[in-house]
Amino acid sequence: MRIAIVGLLLALTSVRGADTPQTSRARSVQQQVRAYREAHEREMIDEYLKFLSIPNTAFDRPSLLRNAQFIADMLRARGVAARLLPAPIAGVPPAVYGEILNPGATRTILFYAHYDGQPVNPAQWAPGWEPFRPQFVTAPAERGGTIVADWKPGDAVNPQWRITGRGSADDKAGVMTILNGLAALIGTGARPTVNLKFFFEGEEESGSPHLGAILGANRAAAAADLWVIVDGQCHFSGQKQVVFGVRGDVNVGLTVYGPRVPLHSGHFGNWAPNPAWRLVNLLASMKDEHGRVLIEGFDADVIPPTDAERRALAAIPPADAGFAAALEIPEPEVPGRSLLEGYMLPSLNINGIQSANVGPIAANVIPVSAKAALDLRLVPGNDAQRQVEKVVAHIKSQGFHVLDRDPTDEERATYPRLIRIDVVPGGYNAQRTALDSPAARAVVEAVQSTVDYPVIRLPSTGGSLPLFVIQQQTGAAVISVPVVNYDNNQHGENENVKVQFLWDGMETCAALFMMP
Amino acid sequence: MRIAIVGLLLALTSVRGADTPQTSRARSVQQQVRAYREAHEREMIDEYLKFLSIPNTAFDRPSLLRNAQFIADMLRARGVAARLLPAPIAGVPPAVYGEILNPGATRTILFYAHYDGQPVNPAQWAPGWEPFRPQFVTAPAERGGTIVADWKPGDAVNPQWRITGRGSADDKAGVMTILNGLAALIGTGARPTVNLKFFFEGEEESGSPHLGAILGANRAAAAADLWVIVDGQCHFSGQKQVVFGVRGDVNVGLTVYGPRVPLHSGHFGNWAPNPAWRLVNLLASMKDEHGRVLIEGFDADVIPPTDAERRALAAIPPADAGFAAALEIPEPEVPGRSLLEGYMLPSLNINGIQSANVGPIAANVIPVSAKAALDLRLVPGNDAQRQVEKVVAHIKSQGFHVLDRDPTDEERATYPRLIRIDVVPGGYNAQRTALDSPAARAVVEAVQSTVDYPVIRLPSTGGSLPLFVIQQQTGAAVISVPVVNYDNNQHGENENVKVQFLWDGMETCAALFMMP
Q1: How far does the CA of residue B282 sit from the closest CA of chain A (Å)?
Q2: Which of A100, A508, B94, B144 yields a CA-CA distance of 20 to 30 A from B239?
Q3: Pick from A3, A263, A325: which is nearest to B262 by CB?
Q4: A438-454 pLDDT per residue, tens
Q5: Is there a single domain that holds both residue B53 and residue B178?
């Protein structure tokens, strides 16, 4: 997720039901895990603060390697055989792999998290808040949070405090809850019956460019019946959720060409074609003023939600009103369409648009070109290449001559409507795991065992991850189990995790390790 | 004119007619002026190179003052009483004023040029070409011109060479041709019968912000029957032209608002409204894909060209094909509409458009806002304020709530379509002088006396100057007589003037001084 959602103070009532009793065995494991945690909180906090102190941005490769080694050491300290899985290119951050194999186990579950973080601009952080000096704060910066200045190592930690720092939520929290959930479980003497594997990636925030290669070179390690992705956020109500899919994603750049040089808007206005108008007219032909996509067949290949997915969606406490208030959105893009309905459909978004200049530096010119960046999200049934082809066909139907490079002089002089279309490499399809599959049921049951309200089952997030790649390469089912608070400013300044969510996440992971 | 038109090599046949004989008296004056010039060419060149060596960009006020003093000295050297007309604010470049009053004269003609130049970025100039070190070059830089390195002061000058430097064409050439036309006329012993006034401005390239105040404080000096603006370019065929008007101009900035913070295009795409789509749909509602403006009443108050203007337009050698080839324009914005037809109509141009980012730095976001800069050119009948009101009314008709400032949180939460409209201060109306007025006839006759082809009479250029202000403040007729070559790169790098155009411009000015 590339953008922080700041300031979302959502006071939505949680839904509690008496019809989802925890089993007494699960409750017993949870109570033991909690007791272990309460007894070892200070060591866990100490270790996590050290982990967060190691920088983890993409271009700091020595530090990324230190993170990987730190994780391997944490695995070994918990009695797990651990090793680094190098990428095929020197210098690329390795994955960290560990496994606990149980003789006689018939099923293997792999737990995934990532240790790298988004870039940071320390100047954008609140005064005294630093990306790689983790501290306790009383609340998010934008809601007046202050640093708990008198806390010292060994002091008790208020679970309502937050820990600040890059990666504190996304996704060192995944690593932390997996490893401490494991430590607690081992500490209680409970023993998983399945094979457990652990896989921690160091390039997720860069788009996982070498994940496929690492998986391909380590097929035995990557093999599992189920990958559990411990990443992402709990529902904004604070409730735990299980996420069964992601949308696919592909980006397309458009460049419409005008005259060869910038022209004086007085001397040539009304005569020389303006590429900004051409782009504007083209884009307007793609989506009407009610937000409906006008590209032929855009939704035609969508596989509609299954009955199980529909039921799950209907059971999710709606967030639309809360988001609308927090974000100051008077009405949704397509009136009457809910946030979750939108997740079940492909999207067409303008990420950006640009031609010449605006504001004080605008000049009276006919620009030479006009550009737009489009983002296409995909759902099951869509194919990235096919979806792009629909857009290209639409552009051609509007009279444009399409190129995949800059035009020659002759082409500029020949075609009144000339466009360059750049399909950004790395597009991929959606991934969805059936809600009624055995793996899905087992994961929901495990998470459910830790809470007394119905766990939210989200058929797909609106966002995207290349989980399709994992599914294709390993054949495993892939399900995400987020652990952190929603308002964590991930990817932005002042990233933070609420301590209580780390403790709850440990219990979630411990329950998942005990799946039958 | 804010943008250089580079590389326009237009080989258009000049139109010559036998029906426009020069009078023998005029021919005699012209021959004497030419003989004087040939005898004094080296001093004139020497003086012009010194003039061009004084920097004249807007923020170098000490140098602008030196320019003004240099001009005053040149006037005095020609026997003209000269003085500086200070602006009401200290430090603002003064105008330079001079006059030759003839006892018994019943008419007064004021000659205007400006001595300030556009900003320069020396790094963009060709190697060895410098904004304030004038040199002779063999051709424009973009057509392979080279510096005439062995030329020394006192050497003969090839009239096909060009002089490079900021202001060499725009508009120190106006000052130069006025003053040397005058020197030559005085040298020949000819004597104007009208009062002559000279007014040289130092803030034209900054939009003449204090011109009105200087005129208001010097009403007697500014008073004239006719202002002749010696600025702008000859027809691209090289032929002399007289220009009777300019379009008005007003700029409008638009900002459409989206959610309060940038949103993840996956998690909120299909639900949160995207301001870039809203702006695109709004702009597309203003102009159709054939370039026709859809705003109600946009052309309704246009005063159509007079019969005289129509005839003059019909007589102008069309440049459309030449421009289309040079600029690689396959067809005009409105198919079938010529360049000159367009000059007679108001225009609606997108100067620029911007929302978030495009290209490699595009992120998968729903942007917080989308901006456009519009340029509205005006013709007689249009009023700047009224034209803007039509645009605002159109925007309201598309469901937008209009503000002249950023929205409050409450407004953002209330209005689904929210726009800020900024009308850029300084807009002004068109100016046009009737082609069949006595002043117009006299000017054309004077210019015609210097050439044996029919002088081009352009009812209006497509560009804009605040000549409306001069007309309003002084009551004078205002007519422009350009002197320099079209391909002069004015406002851009490598500005230049072809020497022959300086010599021809002197003859034009001398003929104008002798108007009855």
Answers
A1: 8
A2: B144
A3: A3
A4: 999 999 999 999 999 99
A5: yes
Interchain pair B283, A284: CB under 8 A: yes
Least CB–CB distance from A351: residue in B281, B364, B409? B364
Q: Name the pTM for this structure.
A: 0.87
> What is the Cα gyration radius of chain A?
25
Structural domain range at position B118: 24-246+431-513
Residue where one domain finishes, among candidates B423, B445, B475: B423
Burial A177-215 (b: 16+ CB within 10 A, else e): bbbbbbbbbbbbebebebbbbbbbbbbbbbebebbeebb
Residue of chain A nearest B408, judged by CA positions: A328
Same domain, residue pair B191 and B257 = no
Could you tell me the CATH number of the domain that includes residue A377? Answer: 3.30.70.360
Structure tokens at B428: 């002004």
Q: How many CB pairs under 8 A join A and B?
A: 335
- The answer as to whether B324 is a domain residue is no
d(CA B354, CA B150): 49
Domain count, chain B: 2
Residue B369 lies in a domain: yes
Instruction: For residues B140 and A385, give the distance between their C-alpha atoms in angstroms, rounded to a whole number.
Output: 48
Distance from CA of B181 to the nearest CA of A (A): 29
Q: Do A66 and A215 fall into the same domain?
A: yes
Residue A17 is assigned to a structural domain of this protein = no
Q: Is residue B339 domain-resident?
A: no
Are A155 and A254 contained in the same domain?
Answer: no
Chain A: residue nearest B347 by CA? Answer: A270
ipTM for the predicted complex comes to 0.87
Residue B23, pLDDT score: 65
Query: Which parts of B298-447 are beta strand (E)?
Result: 347-356, 365-366, 369-378, 401-403, 418-423, 431-432
Task: For A63-75, write each residue's pLDDT tens digit.
Answer: 999 999 999 999 9
Looking at the fold, whether A289 and A231 belong to one and the same domain comes out as no
Among A423, A458, A477, identify where a domain stops: A423
Contact residues, chain B, for A140 at CB < 8 Å: none
**Strand extents, DSSP E, A357-475:** 365-366, 369-378, 401-403, 418-423, 431-432, 456-458
Is B225 strand, coil or helix? coil
In this complex, do A270 and B342 lie within 8 Å of one another by their Cβ atoms?
Answer: yes
Closest Cβ opposite residue A377 in set B249, B269, B323: B269
A213 and A272 inside one domain: no
